[in-house]
Amino acid sequence: MDIWQLLRIEAMEQSQAEPYLASFLYATVLSHPSLERSLAFHLANKLANMTLLSTQLFSLFSETFSADTSIQEAMREDMKAFRERDPACTSYVHGMLNYKGFLACQAHRVSHRLWRQDRTGLALALQNRISEVFQVDIHPGAQVGKGMFLDHATGVVVGETATIGDNVSILHHVTLGGTGNRCMDRHPKVGNGVLIGAGATLLGPIKVGDGAKIGACTLVLIDVPCYCTAVGVPARIIRNTAAAVTPPPPCDFPGQSMDHTSEILDYVI
């Protein structure tokens, strides 16, 4: 059974269990023929204002989701991410409707596609609405992989030339920021399976390797090798010698295991 079928079953069960939500669930999920249409409708209503109409946004989101198979795949991987990595997530329908990190990420995928099509004015307008509504500020030029999990999401900032790999988990108040005022590559490059703890700040065109971990409130100004942990202000690198010899399988990368504490607990300043 695919995610859309599961989500519809969950929506039906919730509408029967909680009548106050029945009309909302029908309008947002049950009345739509596909996940793409349902998500487009929900995002359009979330991001609309007096001058950027929900009907316009619905057309934009729906057309984009339908036309781009890579976005279709990414949104499903993002849904698997919040369902598998967050014990507080009780269902797919709960995450899709209520997790602002997920919603901000899907809206960013649309703004990024607009950016690549040189429709920069609309891309930036959409970025502004995403920031206002979800408190997540991702420049439309930033590249985001699939399986992204923005946990809590409030205060996340990602700059224009940043890239984020697949199966990355980022906590709230994380900054992937630039250095300097020139139009050049100036933001971090984050690999696959990386976990970035709450309040961490990464500055400049540094590289964070696959399977790395950034501790909460860490300031990272240097490259972080694969499978290593960065912690402190400024960051120091804790090397995982075992992983360097025998790399762990991707499913054990911290971005998927959500293991915030191992290795960091043994760190001595």
N- to C-terminal distance: 50 Å
SS strand fraction: 5-15%
pLDDT < 50 runs, ≥5 residues: none
- Counted beta strands: 15
Main β-sheet, spatial strand arrangement: 3-6-9-12-14-15
Helix and strand pattern:
HHHHHHHHEEEEEEEEEEEEEEEHH
Approximate helicity band: 40-55%
Please compute the radius of gyration using only Cα atoms: 19 Å
Our count of helices gives: 10
Mean pLDDT, all residues: 95
Class from helix and strand fractions: alpha/beta
Shape: globular
Explain this structure to me?
With 269 residues, the protein is of the alpha/beta class. Helices cover 43% and strands 13% of the residues. It has a 6-stranded mixed beta sheet. Strands 1-4-7-10-13 form a 5-stranded parallel beta sheet. The protein has a 4-stranded parallel beta sheet with strand order 2-5-8-11. A hairpin with a 4-residue loop joins strand 14 (229-231) and strand 15. Helix 1 packs antiparallel against helix 2, helix 3 (35-47) packs antiparallel against helix 4 (54-67) and helix 5 packs antiparallel against helix 7 (100-116).
Helix and strand layout, with pairings?
Blueprint: H1 3-17, H2 22-30, H3 35-47, H4 54-67, H5 69-85, H6 92-98, H7 100-116, H8 120-134, E1 136-138, E2 143-144, E3 149-150, E4 156-158, E5 163-164, E6 169-170, E7 175-177, E8 189-190, E9 195-196, E10 201-203, E11 207-208, E12 213-214, E13 219-220, E14 229-231, E15 236-238, H9 241-245, H10 254-257
Parallel strand pairs: 1-4, 2-5, 3-6, 4-7, 5-8, 6-9, 7-10, 8-11, 9-12, 10-13, 12-14
Antiparallel strand pairs: 14-15
